[in-house]
Amino acid sequence: MKDRGLVKYPSVKYTGKVQQRSGYLGVIMSDVKGTLAQGGKSYKYFETKPTNASGAGPRGIEIYIEGVADSKAAFDIKPNPHDNSKKYPKKAISFYLAMAKGLVDGIVEADGVASFPNKVSVSWQAETYKLSR
User: CA 17 to CA 38: how far, in whole Å?
Assistant: First the structure.
């Protein structure tokens, strides 16, 4: 995993659940993980938070194609869902599933190799979110 300034967590298997736990640097945060099956492939995704963010700071998403080496991609999410939706805290699972679907829908295949887009816009709860690497 490339270090893109994101908090790294030990591997924990959860599908569409929210879990509170301590990460590195003593940061405590909600962590949303899920699996999306589409087009005969399985995609794993999870919430990320920059190490310099506090509280309801900015969020991101990492996603990869299960069983495909070097397919992991990390994206920043703007605007911060905490600032733009009062529904976000209670619907974080739905939010990250929508972001993952948007990324999977934007996959480009060239020479049999699938890659995630560099940028994509996803609408959720009447707000448009921009995801970028």
Answer: 19
Distance CA 19, CA 16 (A): 10
> Going by DSSP bridges, is the β-strand pair 41-48/28-38 parallel, antiparallel, or unpaired?
antiparallel
Question: Which is higher by pLDDT, 5 or 64?
Answer: 64
Following DSSP, what letter does each residue of 92-123 receive, concatenated? HHHHHHHHHHHHHHT-EEETTEEE--SEEEEE
Phi first, then psi, for residue 112 (nearest 5°) are 75, 5
pTM over 0.70, yes/no: yes
The tens digit of pLDDT for each residue in 40-53 reads 899 999 988 876 66
CA nearest to 40, candidates 19, 66, 18, 59 = 66
Instruction: Report how many helices (DSSP H) and strands (DSSP E) the chain contains, helices first.
Output: 2, 9
Helix (H, G, I), strand (E, B) or coil at 86: coil
Other CB atoms within a 10 A radius of the CB of residue 122 amount to: 20
- Find the range with the poorest average confidence among 10-14, 18-22, 48-52, 97-101: 10-14
